[in-house]
Amino acid sequence: MTTTVRQLAEHVRGELLGDGDLSIASARTLSEAGPHDITFVEGDKHLHAWHESKAGAAIVPLNVPVNGRPIIRVADPLAAFAAVVVAFRGSRAPAATGRIDPKSSVHPTAKIGPGTTVGPFAVIGEGAVVGANCVLHAGVSVGRYCTLGDGVLLHPHVAIYDDCTLGNRVTVHANAVIGADGFGYRTSRGQHTKVPQLGTVEIGDDVEIGACTTIDRGTFGPTRIGAGTKIDNLVMIAHNCQIGRGNLLVSQVGIAGSSTTGDFVVMAGQVGVGDHVDIGSGSVIGAKSGVPKDLPAGSKVLGAPARPDRDEIRILMSLEKLPQLRKDVQQIKKKLGLEDAA
Asked: Do residues 116 and 104 touch, judged by C-beta distance below 8 A?
């Protein structure tokens, strides 16, 4: 595919400045783009790279000046560039073909919606209901009495345990496990006795779940994931958790049992949340933070234990000064004759 900068500007509804007739053959990142490629600039931090780049044109924020090459100004350069990449390369999402592979196993009582694709060695259990235009890749396991909405995409070897519910347009990446038993035991007379995990998992519309992520079923009621929440790879959500709408949970987050989050909460990588903790809507939790107690809505915290981010940053800056502070104290003690300097 070859096009022009003008045609791409029309495609993303951006403001064209410069030579709109320049021929564009591909869309590439700043470091890889050549004279007939278009790239993108997200902000001021990329301006130097843009000036040094060999790219023929760029999609840029609204305030970026012209530097002799054509630019397309848009409010969201990343989203616009993604649309251009799709135009050049097509979407990676597999299209539903409606084919059920003969090597799959679909229980006679299961109901499969129109247009749904089932790959080889996938298993769909008794009484399961799968909506229209879904794609279930090779080795997927959908347990008994599960319900999947329309447009669900399950990548290879996803395991959905019995009785779980997925909404419309849910994507689950390879080797994720939905509905495994929660880690519930009672210790008596030196033995750990398992508490039966009799609940379910309910996942709302437009949720994306990363590879190797696990979401445990509730003990008696459901573990819930709110609509529009995006969960990265290697995240663990324990039994009875109630995750709100539009959360962003980054890789290696671990949320212990019966914790809740409001809407649009962000947890950066390796955040750990204790059990029975309530996190208010709009909270942002920095990487590697440990959250042992409730956070009100709009909190911005960092550290272990988590503190307001400004306080934690001050503490970290002070820690950097400790070696010099120790030397200063030793010198003062020596001058005062309190002790020999170490």
From this structure: no
Tokens at residue 242, please? 């109630």
Domains and CATH numbers, the chain: 3-89 (3.40.1390.10), 158-305 (2.160.10.10), 314-342 (no CATH)
Known catalytic residue at 137: no
In angstroms, the CA 189 to CA 237 distance is 30
Q: How far is CA 183 from CA 131, 201, 260, 297, in A?
A: 31, 15, 17, 28
- H-run or E-run covering 145: none
Q: How many CA atoms does the CB half-sphere of 115 hold within 13 Å?
A: 12
H-run or E-run covering 317: helix 309-320
At 260-297, the pLDDT tens digits run 999 999 999 999 999 999 999 999 999 999 999 999 99
Q: Tokens representing 74?
A: 């848009």
